Amino acid sequence: MYEPTESKVPLRDRDQPVVLSGSALDQLANTCALQWFLGREVKADAPATAAQGFGNVVHVLADEVASGRTPADLAVLMERLDSVWNALAFDAPWKSAQEKEHARVALERFLKWHVDSNGVRAGRVPVASEHDFDVTLEAGDYEVRIRGSMDRVETDTEGRAYVVDFKTGKHAPSAAEVAHHPQLAVYQLAVREGAVDD
Fold it and tell me: What's the CA gap between 96 and 80, in Å, rounded?
């Protein structure tokens, strides 16, 4: 096949807003616009990886603790982790064991942070976990619809909102990376547009 494939039918309705999420904007800004287009607009993205499954499992467990459905107890969380771990497709048993240890460390770190009421989070109260948002913004002649889910929302004694985004990677982002992180900017924009006002 030497000739390019063409279609007279547009891939998306130009009268509808472009829909972005925080992670989609991050991919569009920092990775590859073509990869974003193929995955988000054409729906030709690759299947989820074991690393994505790892992150999803840790996020679900953090949500269960934050919402009170599961106690803030590492042994209980590890039991829950054990019940789903084999569904993740790792390339080798040693990789599965290694990643499970990383998950344990991530859960331990989350629990320490979750119960710390005298440190950075002093005076802040959790008000939502896995909080969905959907805001539409004007961008010149176009509209952009931003949708997503905030891992956790907390408020302080003055009513200010704090969006918490759990990261399950092995390395914490630097302060400079956080200051310019597209996904976090989307959360700030969503808060400004009233996503946590209810």
Answer: 16
Burial of 63 (C-beta count, 10 Å sphere; 0-12/13-18/19+) = middle
Q: Where are the alpha helices (DSSP H) in the chain?
A: 22-30, 33-36, 50-66, 74-85, 93-115, 175-179, 182-192
Q: Other CB atoms closer than 10 Å to residue 156's CB: what's the count?
A: 13
pLDDT tens column, 10-62: 777 778 888 888 888 777 777 777 776 777 666 666 656 776 778 888 889 99
Which residue in 136, 165, 138, 161 sits closest to 151, CA to CA?
165
Structure confidence by residue, pLDDT tens digits, 136-187: 988 888 888 989 999 999 999 898 999 988 887 777 788 898 888 888 888 8
Q: Which residue has the tokens 């909080």?
A: 131
> Radius of gyration of the chain from Cα atoms?
19
Cβ–Cβ < 8 Å for 146, 186: yes
The CA distance from 149 to 138, in Å, is 21
Q: Is 84 left (phi over 0), alpha (psi -120 to 50) or beta?
A: alpha
pTM for this entry: 0.76
